[in-house]
Fold:
Amino acid sequence: MKKLLLFPLFIFTLSACVSAPKGLERNRYAIRSLSQIQTEDYACRCKPVRLGGKVLAVTALKQQTRLEILSLPIAEYSAKPLLDGATNGRFIAYIQGFVDPESLKDQYVTVAGRLTTQEQGKIDEAPYHYPVVAVENYKRWTLMREYYYDPDDDYWGGFWGFSRSRWGLGGAFWRPEPRFRYGLY
Structure:
């Protein structure tokens, strides 16, 4: 009987692992990529957007903080920028109030707000039109380095279907070097 009561709790816990932070839910935003922005979207200054990427530059202004962000695709459900995704441009995000520039520089963020206008700028010597987002909600993600063992690295376990530790050869001693990958949390 206890197992039947714990099952719905287990399912609810798993579903919470992939939900977006409050205010960044996917169904609230019409534009979720820079490639979806059309020229007429700037006219109303009201299109809801959810974009993310890596912060390249931060400037603290009098009443707000200006972020220049290298756009990356974001995961549909968790709203995390995809580290291995191809960039499709840059955009500017304005956060109301003061945010310490050093706390956001070179970090990964997801911002949600309204598409307002375009700013003229340059990337090196090339002119560039930055889409501008007035931020209502944002999330700064922490980049973590994870170590793991790839099962394909173990010759005996990957090819023959059994591991060295079953034969008493001390599986930890014979293990290859761990690999690492990066993830956002």
User: Anything to note?
Assistant: Residues 165 and 173 are 9 Å apart (CA to CA). The helical segments are 2-16, 41-44, 101-104, 155-160, 171-174. The first strand starts at residue 48 and ends at 60. The beta strands are 48-60, 64-72, 90-96, 108-123, 126-141, 143-148, 179-184.
